[in-house]
Amino acid sequence: MQGARVEPQNSELGRQLDEYRADLLAYCYRMLASPFEAEDAVQETFLRAWRGFDGFEGRSAVKTWIHRIATNVCLDMLRSRQHRLRPMDLGPAREPVESNLNVRPEVTWIEPIPDTLIATDPDPAERAVSRETVRLAFVAALQHLPPRQRAALILCEVMSWKASEVAELLETSAASINSALQRARATLKESGISTAERAPAMDEAQRALLARYVEAFERYDINALTSVIREDAKQSMPPYDMWLSGRDDMFRWWFGPGIGCRGSRLVPTVTANGSPAYGQYKPSPSGSGYEPWSLQVIELAPDGVAEITFFLNTATLFPLFGLPPRLDA
């Protein structure tokens, strides 16, 4: 990540901060929608905790104290920029033609995070909730909430805090928190997002479906791809603003302007935002191996691939996901 790790000199404080590291990183990621900014926020949280520990004096639980600091750090960071987006947030799907492929310098995109950085709960049910609440669509929906409303929803709906605890953290009343939650839930509902939604479990059938997709993509076999990608699937390619709706338009792109992806190799990596992820390497123009092209994050439904996000900023994401800088022939 970007910042150097802060190691507080107080050993007991250091131990407690380390216990909260993954939870804080997950919380800050949901607030900021970037793993790099989330890590910076955690480092700043630890620094402020270290500096302010002498004045803490146990007036509240350490959990509340450290999350209050993290919330204030995130709120400070959010004041200085616009919220992060997905291409779907900018308007309707576009035609799969090269002239629709644009980069918008003024837009800051949502970035994926490896689940290994934030998944710590040993309870399978809790891990499932954790996966659902970092899915790209859910994180994108959170970004449309005002920052304090966002914090209240994450703490109550995702982290199962009581309204009274969140009220103490945000220095307001429980009634105010409940009102903020109602407004936040209404906004999510308008976005078609629910905290109760569940993606299919990664069982043998889902793993077989994923293996068929990988094989079909590497062969660039349109018949095999048709059998594994849903007719209503979606595709996006940040930092480009164009997104595609429907398998037919996806294939028009893949076998048209995107034909350079033919012959690619997919390298599995850790799951990203609760979904399978692969490093995609395109054949090198020189013919000597394969060059990094995208991190594919694949949303699965019971009957096929429902969405593929091709994150093209490989310079930062491939090291984060432990992917090699290139592949030999």
Descriptive keywords:
Nuclear Transport Factor 2, Chain: A, 6 strands, 329 residues
What would you say this structure looks like, in words?
This protein has 329 residues and is an alpha+beta fold. The protein folds into two domains: 180 residues, no CATH class; 117 residues, Nuclear Transport Factor 2, Chain: A (Roll), CATH 3.10.450. It contains twelve helices and six strands. Strands 2-1-6-5-4-3 form a six-stranded mixed β-sheet. A hairpin with a 2-residue loop joins strand 5 and strand 6. It is globular. It starts with 10 loop residues before the first helix and ends in a 9-residue tail after the last helix. The mean pLDDT is 90.
Mean pLDDT across every amino acid position: 90
Order of helices and strands: HHHHHHHHHHEEHEEEEH
How many helices? The count is: 12
- How big is the Rg? 21 Å
Low-confidence stretches: none
Q: What characteristic shape results from the CA principal axes? A: globular
Beta-strand content bin: 5-15%
Q: How many separate domains?
A: 2
Chart the SSEs and their pairings.
Elements: H1 11-32, H2 35-52, H3 62-79, H4 124-132, H5 136-142, H6 147-158, H7 163-170, H8 174-190, H9 204-219, H10 222-228, E1 229-236, E2 243-245, H11 247-254, E3 265-272, E4 275-283, E5 290-301, E6 304-311, H12 314-320
Parallel strand pairs: 1-6
Antiparallel strand pairs: 1-2, 3-4, 4-5, 5-6
